[in-house]
Specification:
The protein is an alpha/beta fold and 239 residues long. The chain has a single domain, classed as Rossmann fold. The protein has seven helices and ten strands. The strands form two sheets. The protein has a six-stranded mixed β-sheet, sandwiched between helices. The longest helix is centred in the last third of the chain and has 18 residues. It is globular, with a radius of gyration of 17 Å. 40% of the residues are buried. The mean pLDDT is 90. The structure holds adenosine-5'-triphosphate and magnesium ion. Adenosine-5'-triphosphate binds next to strand 1, strand 2 and helix 1.
Length: 239
C-alpha cells in the first residue's frame, strides 16, 4: 500500500548564535490517502517547520519526504514548484492573500502558476465558491472581507488546482470560536466532496478531535497522541 505522505527521519536545525536548535528531530510519519491528521503541541515545538518541510516550502537538513512515492527533497526548484502547484495545497495561519488582488484573483493564482486553461478549473471554482459561500465576495479586496471570509478565500486558493493533499497551519488560529468552527466544517465538507488528505496543525483540541489520528510535537519529536478511533475504518473521521 502506497502512502500519500511518508517522511523518514526528517531533521531541521537552526543555528542561533552559538546554540543549535533542533526544530525537527528525526520525524517519520506515514499518512494514508484521504486521512485527516492533526498535529498539536506547544508553541516553538517545531510544528510549522515540519509542515513547511512536508510541503516543500522549507528544506530539511536530512531525511526524505515522499508524496505519493515522489521524494520532494530530491527535486530541483523548478520540478518542486510544478509538483507543488499540481499536487499540494497550503493554508497559512495568516492567510497571506495579496492585498491588491481581488478575492477571485487571489483564488486563481495557483492556476496561473501552473498554466491551467480556463476550462480545467471552472468547475472546481464553481464548487468551491459555492461550498465556501463566497460567491458574493469575489470582486472584493481582502481588506473588504471579514477574517473568516479571508480564510475561506485562502482555502479556495489552496484547493483550486484540486490538490490531493492539503497542509493547513493553524487555519483557524486567528478566528473567533464561531468562525473557527465554521471554517473547519467548510474545510471538512470540501474535503469530503473532493476527497483529499488533510494534514493540519492546530492548537485547538476541539478541532483536533475530529481528525482520524492526532500526533503531538514535543521539542522537535513527533509521537502518536491518539490512534484511529475505529482501526477497521481507517479513513472515516465521522464528522
Ligand atoms: N527561521 C528560523 N531561524 C531560527 N530559528 C527558527 C526559525 N524558524 C523556526 N525557528 C525555531 O525553531 C523552533 C520551532 O519553530 P516552529 O515555528 O516550527 O514552532 P511551532 O511549533 O510552529 O510554534 P507555534 O505554535 O508558536 O507556531 C523554535 O524554537 C523556533 O524559534
Ligand atoms: Mg507554527
Amino acid at each position: 500500500m502506497g502512502y500519500i505522505l511518508q517522511t523518514e527521519s526528517v531533521i531541521k536545525q537552526y543555528k542561533q548564535y552559538d546554540a543549535v536548535i533542533t526544530a525537527v528531530n528525526r520525524v517519520s510519519i506515514k499518512v494514508e490517502e484521504g486521512e485527516f491528521v492533526a498535529i498539536i503541541g506547544a508553541s516553538g515545538s517545531g510544528k510549522s517547520t515540519f509542515l513547511h518541510i512536508c510541503a516543500g516550502l522549507d528544506k530539511a537538513d536530512a531525511g526524505s519526504v515522499k508524496i505519493r512515492g515522489n521524494d520532494i527533497t530530491k527535486m530541483s526548484a523548478d520540478e518542486l514548484g510544478r509538483f507543488r502547484g499540481n499536487n499540494l495545497g497550503f493554508i497559512f495561519q495568516k492567510h497571506n492573500l495579496i492585498p491588491q488582488f481581488t478575492a477571485l484573483e487571489n483564488i486563481l493564482i495557483p492556476t496561473i502558476m501552473c498554466n491551467k486553461e480556463d476550462a480545467s478549473y471552472q468547475e472546481s471554482l464553481r464548487k468551491l465558491v459555492e461550498t465556501l459561500d463566497i460567491q458574493d465576495r469575489l470582486s472584493h479586496l481582502p481588506s473588504e472581507l471579514s477574517g473568516g471570509q479571508q480564510q475561506r478565500v485562502a482555502i479556495a486558493r489552496a484547493l483550486i488546482n484540486m490538490p490531493q493533499i492539503i497542509f493547513a497551519d493553524e487555519p483557524t488560529g486567528n478566528l473567533d470560536r464561531a468562525n473557527a468552527d465554521e471554517v473547519l466544517s467548510l474545510l471538512l465538507k470540501t474535503k469530503e466532496v473532493m476527497g483529499q488528505t488533510l494534514i493540519m496543525v492546530t492548537h485547538d483540541l476541539s478541532i483536533a478531535e475530529h481528525a482520524d489520528r492526532i500526533f503531538r510535537m514535543d521539542n522537535g519529536i513527533l509521537s502518536l497522541e491518539r490512534d484511529y478511533l475505529d482501526p477497521t475504518k481507517k479513513t472515516i473521521n465521522g464528522y
